Amino acid sequence: MNDETKSNCPARTDGEPTATRAAVPMLIFVAMLLLLFLGAVYFDHHSGWFDAKVYSPYVSAEQLELYQPKSGAAAAAAQGRKVYETVCGICHGVDGMGKPNQAPPLAGSEWVNAPGFHRLAQIPLLGLNGSLQVEGRDWNLNMAPMGAALSDADLAAVITYIRTSWGNKAGAVSADDVKAIRAVVAGHPAVTGAQLKDLPE
Amino acid sequence: MKNGFSVFMAAFIALGLSWCGFVLGPVQQLGTAKQTTVLNSSDIYPIQRPGDATLGLQVYRANGCAACHTEQVRQDGVVCEVALRNAGKNPVVVSNLVSTLKLADLTKDEADAVSDKITAAGGSTEIQIIPAGTDITRGWGVRRSVEADFLYDYPVQAGSLRAGPDLANVGARLPDLNWQLVHLYAPSALVKNSAMPPFRFLFELRKVGAASSPDALQFPKDFPPPAGFEVVPTPEAKEIAAYLLSLKADAPLYEAPFTPVMTKP
Q1: Number of H helices and number of E strands within chain A?
Q2: Which of A25, A51, A141, B227 is most open to solvent, judged by the fewest CB atoms within 10 Å of its CB?
Q3: Which residues of chain B make contact with A85, given a CB cutoff of 8 A?
C-alpha cells in the first residue's frame, strides 16, 4: 500500500460512524411544516373526502348536490315520468297503451288531448266509474282516486307528462292549476263516465 | 445489521400503507358498485352490453385497440346557464331585466342568484348544468366518464394514450354499423389522413356468388372493392363493431350531472 492510497482512507476506521448531537436547522422544520400545510390545503380542496360519487371537477359531496339539475321543464318532465311509472304505469302501461279490459290507453286518447285540462285532472283526483268510450272502444271503468294523495307539484308533473308523451301534444299544467282544481272538487264523489262528458274541458 | 427489525418494519409499513391506498381503498369504494338509475328517471344504468358486444370487448382487447384509443372523457369544469322559460305577466319588465343580466358561464350560486332576480320580477327560468372541457368541446362525450360506465367491462379498456380519438361515446357519435365496419376494413377510405392501421384480417374478400351477401360492406363510391368481389365481415368483425356501437356513455348520472337536451316528442 503506497502513501497516496493511505491518505484517501478515512482517519477513523473503528466501528460505524455515528451522528453527533448537532441540532437540525430550524429552516428544515419550517419548510416541512409549510409543506404539510400546503398538502392539507390541497387535500381539503381536491380529495372530496374519498367519496365514491365525487369526481373532479366537483370537490365535495355538497357541491355535487348543489349542481344536480332540479328545476325547470326537464326536471318536471322527469319527475312526471317517475310518478307516472310508479303510480299510473301499473295499469295504463309505461308506454301509455293501457291494458285490455282494465285501463284505457292514454296515448292518443281524446280525453287526454282535450285543449283544457280541468276534466282530465278530476279523474286522478276523484276516480272514475262506469262506461266510457275511449278511442272508439267502450270501457267499463273502476278507477280509484289514485292522484288524491299526490302533492300538487307531483300531480301537475304527471298530468303534464301524460299530456306531452307518446305523441300527445296537449300543453303543460302547473301546480297552481292543480291546487285550484283540487279545491273546487274537494269532497265530490267519483266521476262517472256519463258525467265526464258534460264536465267543461 | 443491528437494525434489521426496524428496517423490516419500516419497509412493511411503507408497502402495507401503499397496498391499502392502491388496492384495499379502491376495492372498498368501488368493489361493490351496482347498477344505478339515470338522473331524474327510473331508467337503469348501465345496461349489460349485448352478447356480441361483450364478445367484441375481447376482440377489442386482443387487437390492442386500447394502445391507441382511450375510453375516458375528461371534464375540466361545469358551467350554468339561465334560460328564460316564461316572461310572466310583465314581459317588458322581465325582458329589460334579462338584457342587463349575465346569463351564461355562471357558477351554480351565481345562476341561482340570477334566477331568483328573474323570478322576483315575475318570470320563470330554468338553470341548465353544462359540463365543460376540451374533450367535451371536441364532441367526444357529453359528460366525464365515471365508474358506472365500465360496470360490465372486464377487463376495463380505459386506455392511456390517444393516438386516435376517445371512444367512450363512439356508439352515440357514429351509430352506423356499416360505417364502423368499413372504417375497420379501410380507415383512410372514410377518414382522410387516418393513422389507424386497417384490420383487413377481420374481413373476408370473396367472389360474389349468385347473389351478394346481405352482410357485404357498402363502400363509398371512391373506394370500391375489386370488381366481382365483395368484403364480408367475419364474426369477430361483427362483434367488435357491436361493441363499438354499444359504447354510449351519455346518460346524466348523479355523480356526473348535466341538463339533458330534451328531444321533442
Answers
A1: 9, 3
A2: B227
A3: 42
